[in-house]
Fold each of these.
Amino acid sequence: HTETVQRLLELGANPNHQNKNGCSPVHAASQNGHTDVVDLLVQAGADIHLATTDEYGSVPLGIAAAKGHTETVQRLLELGANPNQQDKNGRTALFKASLEGHEAVVRLLLEKRADVNICAKNGCSPVYAASQEWPHRCSGPTSPGRS
C-alpha cells in the first residue's frame, strides 16, 4: 500500500479528501493499522484531527484504538493527536480501546495522559466500558472503528 499511496500523492492526490461518510485516507490507514501510510499522508498534509462527517464523528486515533492497532496509535500520538478528543457520542480513544479490550492500547493511552474520567454522552466511563461482558450495551450503534 505504501508505494501506491506515495505515487498517488506524487500525482497530486488530496490527502484530506473525504468520502460521503467523511472518511479520509488517514481514517482508512488508521483503521487498517497502516502506520507507514499514516506517516506518508501526514507528510503530505493530512489532518489527523479530522472527524468523519457521519453520525459518529470518528477521528483517526479513536479508530486505530478501537481496532487495537498499538503502533498506529503510538504514531498518531507522536504526531500530535489529542488522546482526549471525543467523537460525536463523547467517546475517546481510551473509551473505545477499553470497550474492545485492547489492553496494550489502553496502557499506551494512559501513559500519554488520556483522561480516565471522560464519559461518553450516555454516561459510560472507560472503566465501565471495560467491565462490560457485552460491549454493545455501552457502545451504542456500530460505528467506524468498531471491531
Note: Residues 5 and 11 are 10 Å apart (CA to CA).
Amino acid sequence: MSQAADNVTNPSEGSAANTGFDIKRILQLLPHRYPFLLIDRVRTLEVNKRVTAYKNVSINEPFFNGHFPNEPVMPGVLIIEAMAQAAALLFYESLSSEDASRQRIVYLAGVDEARFKKMVLPGDCLEIEVSLDRIIRNIGKFTARATVDGKLAAEAKLIAALQSA
C-alpha cells in the first residue's frame, strides 16, 4: 500500500486484482460468525480500489422470524452491516504487509447518506459493491451500494476504523 508522508493512501495507487475468494478466506479475515456473518462470497477484490461481494438471503435467516413474521424483509441496518463487512474485507486486503501481520480489527465508525430503495426478500442475492475512497492513518472511507437483480436496494458512505485487537 503506497503511503504519502502525511500517511494518506490514494486508492488509485496500486491495484493488484484478486479474482475473489470463498467463505474460508472470509472467515480468516472477519471476526463475525453465524448468525452475524453477512458475506457469503467475494467475486472480485482490487486492492486499494473496490470489492464485489454477495449475501445469499435465505428464509432461514434468524431475523426473518421477527422482521416481519408474515412479510419477511431483510432489515436495512443488516444491509448496511453487510456493506460494512465487505468494506472491512477491502480494508484488510489493502493493508501493507507490516500492518497485515499485526492483530487488528476493523470497526464500523460511521454511516452517512444511507438510503434504502428496494426491499430485500428471502431468495434474493444481495450484490454488494464497495469502493475505497481513501485511507487516512487508520480510518477508511468507502462508498457502498447493494443491489438485487441489478436494482439498487441500498447505498451509503461508510467510515471504518482499524484498531488493535
Note: Confidence is low (pLDDT under 50) at residues 1-15.
Amino acid sequence: MQQNGKYGVLLLGGHRTHQENYASNFAQDERCQLVAFADELDGPPERITLARSLAAELNLPFIADLDEALAREDVHIVSLCTDVERRGRIGAKCAEAGKHVYLDKPMALNAEDADKIVTAVEKNGVKSQMFSNIYSTWARTVQQALTSGSIGQLQAIHCDVLFSKGHPGTAPVGEKRVQKPTLERYSFVEAKPEMFDVGVYAVSMVNWLTQKRVQRVFGGTANYFFQEHRNCGLEDFGALVLTLEDGITATIVGGRYGWQSHAQGGVRKVHLIGTEGSLTFDASANRLEVFAAEPAFEPPEPHPLDPMGMWSSTQAGIGMQPKQQWIDVGSGDDGQREFGAFLDCIEKDVESEMNAEFASHSVEIICAGYRSAATGEVIILN
C-alpha cells in the first residue's frame, strides 16, 4: 500500500463506459485513492478521447502508455472498463504487472480471452472480481433461503434480468433472426449483444447460487424490440436452458425491452424449485409505490450517441428524469457493497466470490449459448 495507507486505483475506460460509475465507487471507499486514467498507446482514438474526457472531469492525469502506468508503484488496483474486445489482453497484462484487477462485465469477449485473465491472475497471485449482482441485498436473501434448506433439495432455478431502457417497437415484425456462432464484435454506439451484456447477470447469479458447473447449454436469440440491435446484427433478447451438475435444470432470460416496460430499471427475479417447495424473489419487492398528482414518466429523446440509455453522462446530457413510481427500500448501498467486498478480499488475502476463474464460466456458458442458437443443437461443456 501507499505511504498514506490507501490503495492506488488506475482507471481504464472513460466516458460512455461503466467507469463513470466505478471511479466514483472506488473514490467513495476510504481505503482507495484514484491515481490516473490510462490506455494503450495504440488504443482506439475515440476510446482514448473519452478516457481523457473523464480524466479531466475528475481532475486526474491521463497516462498515454499503459505499460508506464502499470509500472507505477502507487498503482495497486486496475479498474478495467475498456471495450470488451480488448479486455482479455489488457486484463492479463494488468495481472502480469502484479496489479489486482476489477473487471467490468462481461470480463471478456470469449472463453479464450477469459482464460488469459484467469491464467495471469493465478500465476501472479493477485485478486480479481467481475461486476455482478451477487452482493446486492436481494441476492443475499435468495442465497440465505436456498442454504436454509426450506425448499428441500434444489431441482430447478430460473433467473430473469431485463433492462427497461431504449425505445422499442422498431424491430421488423416477423423477421427471423439468424444467429452467428461467435461474436466478432461487441462494442457499438447504439446497441450491445443483450444475451451477453444483460444475460451475464442472470448466468452469474445462477452459477453463484448453485455453486454447480454447467454441463449442457441450449440457447436462442431474437430481435423483438429495437431496430438498432437488428441493424448491428445483435440480439435484444436471449434465453438459455442449462443442465447443471447433479441434474439441476436452470433457465435464464436476458435482454432489453424498452423504457416503459417496467416501473423501475427492469425485471430482476429468481425462482427456486425444490423437492419441498418453491420460492420467488423479486429485486423490486421491497419498495414504496408512489401515487401523486405529478406527470407520468416520459421516455427521453434518444441521445445520438446512446439511444439505449446505457451511460450516466449521456442521460444527464439530455436531462433524463428518473422514474419515481417505485422507490427502492433498503438497497441504496448495494453498489458500494460490491466494491467494498473486492477491497475486503485484497485486505484479507481471500478470493472473491466472483473472481476471474469463477466469472469465466459465465463467459463460457454464454458463448456456448450463441453456438447453440446458431446451430439449433445442445452444446456440451467439458
Note: The CA atoms of residues 230 and 344 lie 42 Å apart.
Amino acid sequence: MWTKPITIGRHAHGDQYKARDFVVDKSGTFKMVFVPKDGSGAKEWEVFNFPGGGVGMGMYNTDESILGFAHSCFQYAIQKKWPLYLSTKNTILKAYDGRFKDLFQEVFDKHYKMEFDKHKIWYEHRLIDDMVAQVLKSAGGFVWACKNYDGDVQSDILAQGFGSLGLMTSVLVCPDGKTIEAEAAHGTVTRHFREHQKGRPTSTNPIASIFAWTRGLQHRGKLDSNPQLVRFAETLERVCVETVESGTMTKDLAGCIHGLSNVKLNEHFVNTTDFLDAIKSNLDRALSKQ
C-alpha cells in the first residue's frame, strides 16, 4: 500500500514517439542502415525477412539526451532525498536499453555517488518487470526513472492507483536545473467542458491545474530568491490537500471512497465552483495566520 508519494521521471525524447513505423504488403527484407558523416563505411543490419505482409519500425535515442535525463533524475532524487531506480529491458534490448543502463551508472559514479551516500539514499537499475512488481509491493517514497513509453504508461497507472489523474503533478525538467514546464498531467476533460458550455454544473477536479501553477511559482520563487512566493505556493498546495482530507472533494475522489454509482451531490461531493470556493476560503484563513 502506497503511503508516500512516488515520482516518475519520464524520458520525454525519442523511442516510439519519434520512430518511423510502416506497413509492408508483400514479402521482402527489412534492413537498417547507418551512414557515418565522416565518410567511413556504412553499417547495415538485417532485421527480418518478411514472408508476406507485416509491420516494421525503426527508432532511436541520443547519448546527449540520455545523459541530460540522467542528470535531471539524480538531481531531483537529491532534492527529494529519495532513492532513485532506473527500469529498462536490457536483457532483451542489450544495446539500446543497455546504453541507458551504462550511461546512468557512469553519471552516478562520476557525479552523484558521494551526494547520495551523504543523504543515505541509493541508486539501482532494475528490469522493468521486476520494478513494476516492486512498486506495487512498496510503500512509495522513491523516484522511478523510465524510458519514454514506460513513463507514459506507468505514470497513469500510478496516478489512478493514488485515486485520480487529477491528483498527479507533471513537471518537465531540463538538466540545467533552471528551465522547467509545469502542467496538469490529465487531458482537457472535454466531456465536462461541453456540459459547462450548456450551463450545467460539473464536478471537475482542479487540483492538478492548481499544482501546475504552484510548482511553477515555487520554482520562480527559488530562482528569484523570493521566499514569500515559495511560501504562498506551498501553502496553497497544503490547503488543497487539507480541504480534501476534511471531506470536501470532487466527484472523482468521492467515487474512490464510496464507488461512483453510490455518490450524491452535496452529500459525498461538491461541484467545481463550490470546491474552488472552499479552497479559496481555506487559503485566506491559512494566509491570515502567517
Note: The mean pLDDT is 94.
